[in-house]
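Continuing the series of single-chain predictions for the mutant panel. This is the parent chain; the variants come on the following pages.
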Amino acid sequence: MSSQHLMANYARLPITISRGEGSWLWDSQGKQYLDALSGIGVCGLGHAHPAVAAAIADQAKTLIHCSNLYGIELQQQLAQRLCQLSGMDKAFFANSGAESIEAAIKLARMYGHQQGIKQPSIIVSDNSFHGRTLATLSATGNRKVQAGFEPLVQGFIRVPFNDVEALRAVAANSPEAVAVLIEPIQGEGGINVPDDDYLSVMREICDEQNWLMILDEVQTGVGRTGQWFAFQHSNVQPDVISLAKGLGNGLPIGSCLARGKAAEVLQAGSHGSTFGGNPLVCRAALTVLDTIEQEQLLARSSSVGEWIRSTLREKLNDSPVIVSIRGKGLMIGIELNQDCSELLTQALDNGLLISVQAGRVIRLLPPLTISDAEAQQIVDRLLALINDFAAHQAA
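Parent structure:
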C-alpha cells in the first residue's frame, strides 16, 4: 500500500505495523518487534489488552457517542475516579494531550481575567513540550516545533527548567503572571528529572503569588512513573493537571483536572468538545484504571523501571559514550555524549522500538505490563547497540 496520499509531516520509519499483543508488534512482513515505547507512552497495558478490547467491543454495541448536552454516566464515573486518585475536584474531557493542555491554558487565562489582569501570562520552561496546536506549541520550549507557524500565541514567559530562582525573578518583575505550566519530568526534552524539592518550592511560590500550579502529566500520568501521577512523588497538590496518553490505552482521550478555585473557572459555554468524554473512551479508561489496580502495576512500574536503570548503569559504567541514565518508573532516558539518532534505525533492524530525544537521549517507555524476560531483552538489545556504537566512535 502506497503512502503517496498522506501528508509528509511524519518522518516514518520503513515498516508498516499490522498487529500487536502485549509488549510486541508485528509489521506487514511478519517481523516481530519489542515495543520499548508502548506507542510513545500510550499503551501502558500493552497492545490489544484483552480486558480493554472486551470493554471496547461491549460498549460499541451499546453506545459510542452521546452529545455533552446530556448526561453521560460513564463520563461521570471516570471524572469521579480520576478526582479520587488525584485529589482534584472536577474534570473536563478532551481527545488528546494537546487539547487537555489547551483547556488548562484557557482556564488560566480566564482565571487571570477574573483577577482583573488584562493580559495574563503563563510561565513555561525551556526544553518543554506541550503539544502542536497553536497555543500549545507556543507554550513549548522547542524552537523546531514552532518554526514556520508564526505569529505565535502571546502570553507565555519562559524560564529554565528546574530553576526556582528564575520563578522568583518572574514573581518580582512580572505582575501579569497568573500560572506556571510545567512537566514534572520533561519527556520530549530528554527525560529531564528535576531536583526532589522543585515542585514543592514551586508550590510555595504559586501560593505566595496567587498563581495556578498547572502540571502537564500527559506523558508522566496514569502509572508511568510508579505513582498514578508524577507529582505524587512529591508532597504537593497542583491546581490543574492535564492527562492523556496512557489513559485510554490507545483510544483518544484527554482530561483536564482542577481543584479549588481553579475548578470553578470554566462555566457553561466557556469551553467544550464534541467528542470529548464519549461513552466509548470513558469505558476504556475506566477499564485501564481497574486493570492497573487489579494487576498492581504501579509497583510493577516502579520496580522494573529501577531494575532497568540500575542494570544499565552497572553494565555501562565504563562506557565512554554514556553521560547519565535517569528517570522514574518506566520513564527512562539514557543520555549519550554525542548525537545518536542513528540508533533509531539500528534498533529497528534489531527488532527493538525506541526513540531518540534531543539528538542524544535514548527514551524508553515500556508497557507497565512488561515481563521480567522482556525487560531483560530490552536491556540486552540496548547494551549491544550502545557498545557497538561506542566501538565505532572509538575506531
